[in-house]
Design a protein that fits this description.
By secondary structure, this protein is α+β, with helices and mostly antiparallel strands. It has 4 helices and 5 strands, in the order E-E-H-E-E-H-H-H-E. The chain has a 5-stranded antiparallel sheet with strand order 1-2-5-4-3. A hairpin with a 2-residue loop joins strand 3 (33-38) and strand 4.
């Protein structure tokens, strides 16, 4: 598992268990945007890393979803530092 994802209070969070040096986190930080694809549906998204204050309950959500594997995402200061919030990108103006 390279990353873990959870939804808390309607917000999607991702953590890279290898920390801020992971390829996934570095790419998110460098570009600040991306695309999520589910089947044939694509959504442009914003990837927030700077100044991010993760919501309360985030660690608990990782523990609930991932069980014993969650400790790599919750207890590790490296993984906590690599928390990313994914938000929908604004639709382009017509």
């Amino acid at each position: 598992m390279e990353v873990g994802m959870v939804v808390v209070a309607g917000e999607l969070y991702v953590r890279a268990y290898r920390g801020v040096g992971s390829r996934w986190y570095r790419a998110a930080r460098k570009h600040g945007h991306g695309t999520i694809r589910v089947g044939t549906v694509r959504h442009d998204v914003l990837l927030t890393t700077d100044g991010l204050e993760p919501c309360s309950g985030l660690d608990a959500a990782f523990r609930t979803k991932y069980g014993s594997v969650a400790e790599a995402l919750v207890a590790s200061p490296e993984a906590r530092a690599a928390t990313i919030r994914i938000d929908p990108a604004s639709a382009p103006a017509p």
